[in-house]
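TEACHING EXERCISE
Course module: macromolecular assemblies
Task: Read the component lines below, then compare them to the predicted structure of the full complex.
Student: A.B.
Group: 4
Components provided:
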Amino acid sequence: MRVIVDNEKCQGHQMCSIAAPEVFGSDDYGNAVLLIDGDVPAALEAKVRRAEGNCPERAIRIEA
Amino acid sequence: MSVDDARDVVNDYDIFEPGFVTDPYPTMSTIRESACPIAHTERWGGSWMPTRYDDVVAIAQEHELFTSRQIIVVPPPPGVAEGPYGGVKAPPISSDPPEHHWHRRMILPTFSPQSVAKYETGTRELCNGLIDGFIATGQADAAAQYAQQIPARVIASMLGVPVEMSEEFTSWVRGVLELGLTDPKARMENRLKIMNFFRGQLDDRKQNPRKNDLITELLAATVDGEPVGDDYVMGVCNLMLVAGVDTTWSAIGSSLWHLAQHPEHRRQLREQPDLWPTAIEELLRAYSPVTMARIVDHDVEFNGCPMHAGDRVLMSFPAANRDPRQFDRPDEVILDREHNRHVAFGAGIHRCAGSNLARLELRVALQTWLERIPEFELVDPAAVTWAGGQVRGPRRCLVRF
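Instructor-supplied answer key:
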């Protein structure tokens, strides 16, 4: 699984970092940044799906 | 509700009707499931009220069509003088692009999760101190003696102004956002008090700059080489007070009102502390306090509604957050709700700038209460009073423990 944050859509709700703090952090302005490179570790996939399903701006995309 | 009643609310809703203030959700549901899910009223200066999640989010995101020229749910009456601070607004909430971009970017670092984390210890001490004051009596007003006391003090410490001012802050903010909604004179009087206070604070910082002080830093800030200006700094202070007090206090109060009636949720939070992050989001969803307004930029037909330039649209985030099209069992509080794209903090470029601080205050206030007062109940459910309109939450909420 790969995950992408669309920085044009992200408005800094932080819902992703609440759902999956191992994968999503925030920059100085509170917008989402990815904390991992490459594939999402299998153990975190459920959390990343949850992050995707909690973003009000639909700024997170999951690619299988 | 009969067909005639439904026809009434979709054409003639009244956000200040006492029944709606006390429990708006049945009316919101009636509108949402009617043929006109974007209701209209001529009351209070006239407005549209979308109730479906997709409509509210679309309007929030289309900031060029739905502008922030006015964001208060009731317009100021025509011809009323705005006084000496008429040009001072509440950036960035009252700003539109292109200024909105720097108006917002300037303050976002102050409210990032990393920045607000330093307020956690102080907020916990504050909450414990409030509880110390009433725990021996076996009962307390969870709204007035607890929830109401927290945000004004946190904001005062952020702004570097005396915490003893918090009672006055609360009174001014209520004067603008509660009493002032239907009483323009009170709104202006209280707005003037806020502005005069911050005028004095700005003058003081110019004479005596402080270290690690938000007002001092904002006064020294520049955009494209130019100082941001006093009006901007005054506006930000105004916003922090007006947007940061009633709102968070309402969220804390509603959540305690809920927990007072749900022993199973109190137990869940006690036994599974890792539920807190989703529980906070769920309480924010279910009891979203804030409704903002937008002004339509130009004539448009939006989802079948003939909207005209200058029309007011009420962004009912509380209604959006109970839409069954978006949320499974929307009227139930499910503390471990898996998918929760709630918009309690809005959506689009005006997403609440203080959301991370609000979350922190809400979590610390509820955790501290439950640690000290694990079991409690409403003294009389019918005696709980609510404020509504722009910000909905309990104002009197007596509990015993």
